[in-house]
Amino acid sequence: MAGGVVILGASHAGVQCAAALRDSGYKGAITLVDEGAEAPYQRPPLSKGFMTGATPLENLALRGDSFYSTEAIALKAGVRAERIVPALRQVILADGTSLEYETLVIATGGRGRPFLDHEPLGNVHTLRTLQDAWQIRAAIDQVDGPVAIIGGGYVGLELAATLRTSFGRDVHVFEASERLLARAASPSLSDLVAQKHRAAGTVLHLGCAVAGLAQSEGQVSGVVTDEGAVVATALVVKGVGILPNQELAAACGLACQDGILVDQYCRTSDPSIFAIGDCCRFPDAVSGKMLRLECVQNAHDQARAVASVIVGDAQPYAAVPWFWSDQLGMKLQTAGRWEPGMSCVVRDESEKGKISFFHFSESGRLGAVETVNHPSLHMLARRMLAAGLSPNPADCADATFDLKKLLS
């Protein structure tokens, strides 16, 4: 098996794929390639515990130091893949060397979406990598004054919560949509999150497009809205989504469309090449729609699905998508996918600090469950969605009704 498996990208998807291959009994060579010089690390803590110092650098590691040697996984860090040559089953690296592969897995993730065409300014950042997080931490220590977060998605809101509660900074969040989390959450959940952020003292500018940045002596000094208002700020973090890193795939002829296109086994248009995680677009097992999900769960589950194919026990990717976020004392968890047009049923347990939103399609099918501070119900919702159950909406609203009965 010359070359074995080569995995491009050593973040959540790539490392999980390597681990799943060994767990599944794969004995061939495995090589992980990543242009980052750091050991593979977790990304979710970057906006929270790592930013405050509560999560030290050593606790970010995806795997312990001995994992790669113990599992005979070659980790080539700090090396960029330049080109894929499918006809030769080769990957050409930036250092002039090449790797042969029997199977190639592309797990290159994504990068921050470009936003605002302006000359480089001091204290304007994105938060995607460990290096980004280091730079923001340093800026927080060095710069006084308000902080502006451009983009009201989960990572930006986590960072806003961290800066407000742990550092006491004045924080402004700018979101072009009329509500927070417009792509990722229902109006019910986004309204609750907005309420909590306002109560914490964060200023939300909703339905407010950013037209530019004001500057003074090469440093950012304000955010300019599309109505011409200037909101003073000493630090800006841009978080308006990501673009999939699909350039290597597109250059070698793989089908791409806002992500590398794959089938239900995460196989690309070349049968010897797979793509997983943030960089790929796959068919949803329920709706059949092509989706690209940006979350750790999706990366892990697709990695395991690909490992099963490589070892000859092919399992299609049909996992129920789920997601979590911790901010302002709330554990936000979503199972399934909310879509516009779904009806919402509220299970109000606010006396216990919990609330849940059940979302049903027009046909009555349960499509998503969003929970706040209710991990056990989140796990139950994942099981219900995986089983294709659609409970009575009245039972979902009744906090005294034991939903576990539906799975017995």
From TrEMBL:
Keywords annotated in UniProt:
FAD, Flavoprotein, Oxidoreductase
A GO cellular component annotated for this chain's UniProt record is: cytoplasm
Tell me a Gene Ontology molecular-function term this record carries.
oxidoreductase activity, acting on NAD(P)H
User: What InterPro entries has UniProt attached to this entry?
Assistant: FAD-oxidoreductase/Apoptosis, FAD/NAD-bd_sf, FAD/NAD-binding_dom, FAD/NAD-linked_Rdtase_dimer_sf, Reductase_C
Q: Name one Pfam family in it.
A: Reductase_C
- Per UniProt, residues of the FAD/NAD(P)-binding domain are 5-303
Q: What cofactor does its activity depend on?
A: FAD
Membrane-crossing residue ranges in chain numbering = none
Record domain Reductase C-terminal: where: 322-407
Name used for this protein in its record: NAD(P)-binding protein
Upper classification of the source organism reads:
Bacteria, Pseudomonadati, Pseudomonadota, Alphaproteobacteria, Acetobacterales
